[in-house]
Amino acid sequence: MTKPLEFWFEFASTYSYPAALQVEEACKAVGVPLIWKPFLLGPVFAAQGMTDSPFNMFPVKGTYMWRDLERICGDAGLGWTQPTGFPRGSVLAGRIAARNADAGWVGDFVRAVYTANFAQDRDIADDAVIADILSEIGQDPEAVIADATSPEGKVHLRANTEEAQEKGLFGAPSMRVGDELFWGHDRLAQAIAWAQKS
Length: 198
Fold this sequence. Notes:
Layout: E1 5-9, H1 16-30, E2 34-38, H2 41-47, H3 54-57, H4 59-76, H5 91-99, H6 106-118, H7 127-136, H8 141-148, H9 151-166, E3 174-177, E4 180-183, H10 188-197
Parallel strand pairs: 1-2
Antiparallel strand pairs: 1-3, 3-4
């Protein structure tokens, strides 16, 4: 019996971008249920003793990563523009995605936020940008943002982040199928195949 695939992602995560734009279509193509699991990398990195993205902490690695992403996006036909700010704040976007993880429009929202950040160089830390994205996908920005930033709305992203730490996630994107963990956009196909045979 096919198991669902949990897609754990952070909107500021570079390698989550190509995976997030492809995961829903890839899962649908083979009948694998998809569970969107936004979380925050900051607390995860802090628990590992890091105070910044490893790509900023290790410039040589960061230089490689930017070129690597340019190649990956080119091969996948995805838009690419290196963000002028990195990493950008993603709390509001994460709260919206976590609060609405079961909504029919959440995949469109996730893809639009990633495209804004990594293809259009729009500042996703700006509430106005997130409001514009919500309008672009046919949602009521004022209502969605108010709900996601209410006390009841905020708990979902916090709970996901705590769950990510409890389950031993250390980066994004991460895919979980049952107790199996797959890390990195290049493990997406493997994770989906595992879900099919589970």
